[in-house]
Amino acid sequence: MSTPASTKHTKLGSEDSIRRGPPVEVVRYGPGKRINHWVTAISLILLLLSGLAMFHPSLFFLTELFGGGQMTRWIHPWIGVVLFISFFILFAQLWKLNIPNRDDVKWASQISDVIGGNEENLPELGKYNAGQKFIFWGMASLIIVLIVTGIMAWEQYFGQLTSIPTQRIALLVHSLAAVAIILIFMLHVYAAIWTRGTIRAMTRGTVTGGWAWRHHRKWLKDMAGRGRIDPTK
Amino acid sequence: MANTMDSPRTAVSNPPVQPMETNLTQRDLIRRSATSELPPPERQLTPVAKLIDVSKCIGCKACQSACVEWNDTNPEVGENVGVYTNPHDLTADMFTLMRFSEWINPETDNLEWLIRKDGCMHCADPGCLKACPSPGAIVQYSNGIVDFIHDNCIGCGYCVKGCPFNIPRISKADHRAYKCTLCSDRVAVGQGPACAKACPTQAIVFGTKEDMKKHAEGRIADLKSRGYANAGLYDPPGVGGTHVMYVLHHNDKPHIYADLPDNPAISAVVQTWKGATKYAGLAVMGLAAAGTLLHGLFGRANRVSKHEEEEAKELVDESVEHVEKREEDA
Known about the structure:
Chain A: This is Formate dehydrogenase subunit gamma. Chain A: Keywords: Cell membrane, Electron transport, Heme, Iron, Membrane, Metal-binding, Transmembrane, Transmembrane helix, Transport. Chain A: Belongs to the formate dehydrogenase gamma subunit family. The complex is a heterodimer of chains A (233) and B (330). Chain A has eleven helices and four strands. With 233 residues, chain A is mostly helical. Chain A has two domains: 1-28 and 205-233, no CATH class; 29-204, Fumarate Reductase Cytochrome B subunit. Chain A has a four-stranded mixed β-sheet with strand order 3-2-1-4. Chain B is of the alpha+beta class and 330 residues long. Helix content of chain B is 31%, strand content 15%. Chain B contains eight helices and eleven strands. In chain B, strand 7 and strand 8 (177-178) form a beta hairpin. The longest helix of chain B is centred in the last third of the chain and has 31 residues, at 268-298. The chains are: A mainly alpha (233), B alpha+beta (330). The interface between A and B is large, with 66 and 57 residues.
């Protein structure tokens, strides 16, 4: 006989549900989002390497990773297209949860408690905190800027699309946006490493109950309150 | 070989009969794209220039033919759309182009047929070279010639954005940038550019930049004496002067010659992109990387405590009990 809690939710074990354990684990990302995330991540790293090669002469040696300058020039925009599509599939699934709310203002105003690791002073949070939301919207807007300016600078197919003065502005904006997105990327990676126990959310898909309690208590309480608990796992 | 001149003084003479070593080599470079530490050139070659006297041009296109012939390019057969300009624009296979403009002089009400031979101006301060991200794809020799080294070209088209004259074209066949070389391969062995050699009216002449300026002075004096009060030499200072110069009968308005820029200079946008952005951007990214690395190594990580794991377990246990109780009550 199955327990009421599990009959009520046939899709338990999927995203945003608790595995009772022990130990208690919370499913933060299903396989679809994880694959999506890593396609985006790998694309971003490849874009960063190929883009930096064309950004500063001291980094031109990075073209060797792609089989030379011609190959780097050819492949960079195509990786950009892959990233754009991959990111915006993720975007469509995550944007609602990333809408800023009142807790985010309080969280951001107490950024010293965040950096100091004094999370007991911070409001209880849903699935994302203001920092994660900043990264999400920062990435989303910069990726739009980068794909638009990137297409304008894509000599092979779009060299005639816009005038040369416009293309100059596009390339300046493209490089500034690239610097900005690299900074956000570093913040994203750093925060994931600094906040121990985070990376497994994107590898195994789960986090520990304690992690959810510490960082996203409202999210954990909401799942528990709705009975999204799988007692068999 | 003390008497050997380092560069030809004219395009009309016959080529030297003795075999000659190429004198435009790596050791003659004064600029090399995407290269910060270029050793100074071993010698200073005499600056050369091509002078195009627009007032003497008859529009025969012998220069275009000579250019195609010497560079062994194969421009597509075009379509006649009712103007003499053919092909309609510079291409990766057409490094020079006679541009024909019909201009009505408002002072005389005369129709003037202006013919300008377009092509690379060989700027002293080349925007293409500044914009180029590929080391050694664009070089500048001490005699002033700006040349594309196709083996190093990656086909990004940044030179197209850098050029204030809209000259370089990217080949659709091999994805490399092409433009007039000022016949560097001829000049290197004592011959003038093919276009100048072919010109039947000597509207195109070639020699040292100094000689060409002197020659222009004579031409300008002649034009002035014939009523062209604004005749002058086009050697725009905004790009540090050029090694292809024009004698224009209306030097006060270069734009009437098929949009020749009045005051060409490397765009401020390109300067910012290739200046502050490049250096500050790299510095900011480097600092951020170093900062996160240091904080990661020496800072205190944000860890979940045992107590918090227990709190979570309690919460989950309570919820399960709560649900079961509600089901029993029902």
